[in-house]
Amino acid sequence: MRSLRTLAALALALLGLAVGVPSASAIDPFPIDGIMTLSNDNFTVHYNGNDRDTACVNFITEEKAGDILGMLDRARTFYASMGWPVPAPGAHVSIDDFPANGGCAPYGNGLPFGVATPLNRWNAFVESGNIHLDAHTGLTYPIIAHEVFHLVEDGIAPGADQWLQEGTAEWAAVRANKAEGGAEKNPDRTLDCVGSRCGDTEFDKNGYPGWMLFEYLAERYGDAKVKAVWDQALANPANPGTTDLAAALPAGTTLASFFNDYTTARMTGNFTLPALKDTRPEVYAAIPVGTTSGSLPETPVALNHLAVRYVTFLHGSDPTLPCFAATLTINVAMPAGVVSTPTYYANTKTAAPQPLTASGLAASITVPWNTCAGSPSAYLSLPNDSLGMDGREFTVSGSVGVDPNAPAAPSEPPPGAHVIGTPIAAPTTDPAPTLNIYAPEVLRVSSKTRLLRFVVFSSGDGRLGAVLGSAGLGSAALRSGNNDVRFVLPTQLFQSLRSKRSSNVLQLTSKSPSGTEGATFTRRVVVQTPPKPKKKPAKKKH
After folding, report:
1. Is the dihedral of CA 103, 107, 113, 115 positive or negative?
2. All domains of the chain, ordered by start, with CATH?
3. Is the sign of the CA dihedral 129, 135, 136, 142 positive or negative?
4. What pTM did the predictor assign?
5. Which of 227, 315, 389, 415 is most buried, judged by most C-beta within 10 A?
6. H or E segment at 243?
């Protein structure tokens, strides 16, 4: 029998527990659920109801499963209202743990053939009519709406090109979500490309940027035109998606002209959908025009089929300097066999796109310009509208003529324009121009003239500082284009070249108009000794 002291201590301990735990918080045993299902008239969601499962981390509550059912039905109803055939009732949706690479799928095949591992790179896929959603990343409405449209597509033409499937599924999801869709990082990606080679982001690699092309198709000809593409895929299952798209276009409209018009719409933001209206695409290259008359640097631009690259033309860089009216001429040399209509867009308040005038393989345009730093950059589209023509190089060149007697004011940008991509802070100083030094590694100076002469190509206005050994030669003015640079070496410095080898290193430094230094180039300078005069033959004595 226990002592009274022990029993008293035990009673106090039990009393303490009773005081510390409210009577309403008693936890009785409840069932530990496993794989559960929740259904409505059209879908059945399979999910893991075990909140202590350490092998598969895909637990969700019944309430969350109900939310998923609601989103599935919402997307299905929306597509039916657009005139698309809806999936048959009874579709199954599995909420998986993708990091388990197929080992934690409550329903269906969690790792079907053709779906690459690791699965956590993806957030959803469809196999045999079943939708698989990752419990960690795949339970949002845009993703669910995208996958439901894949069921719609599979009910029409399951073997259609993947770029067609992904582009239209993303277009449908954007419409269903009534929200902003994604934008490509690589507008120069080939339209019909899907795979890890097809861009710098998962969005691009999936072929999702095609949604913007189908949005343009729908805005131009009506939503029914997108379905007409799938009608072509159903009628001609062996045809590529580009053939289906071309066949769905109105009579007289070629795929090349339609794609060219689309690239222009992307450049100008000519869409009604808020996600695309007044947006600007990523830029491949920016060409500085300069503030004085001269030539533009030649810019090569290579393109694959059904792809586009955009370049911009930059006005002056220093807002403290006066600016003047000018005339800008743009020339584009196009590769043989490529169908293309390069188009210029001033990107100002009242501007409209202007196709360049083509003559053979050359296209050009001359437009008003100004040298004002506050003016928005102008755009040039370079589309390759052809099929099967890859790696074709365009060359952009041109010139600017500045009227120093005609003061100008900065152009006003269009209202609401915004650029897709990461904003880059404007520099607080004007950058030095980039240079190409057209001179041999060893420059020879005549002992008669002491003239040091070479050609420098500059991307803009600035100066070229020159130092020979430790002696400064001063600086030469640079303008945009080619510059004939000359320095006359002082006599004393010239004499030292004959005796001090360490003094013959020439340093050439790019400088902006305000003095910001850029890259430095080096050459060697040697004295070109004149040939010795030939000895006159001695006269023979008679």
Report:
1. negative
2. 35-268 (1.10.390.10), 285-407 (2.60.120.380), 435-527 (2.60.40.2550)
3. positive
4. 0.70
5. 315
6. helix 241-248
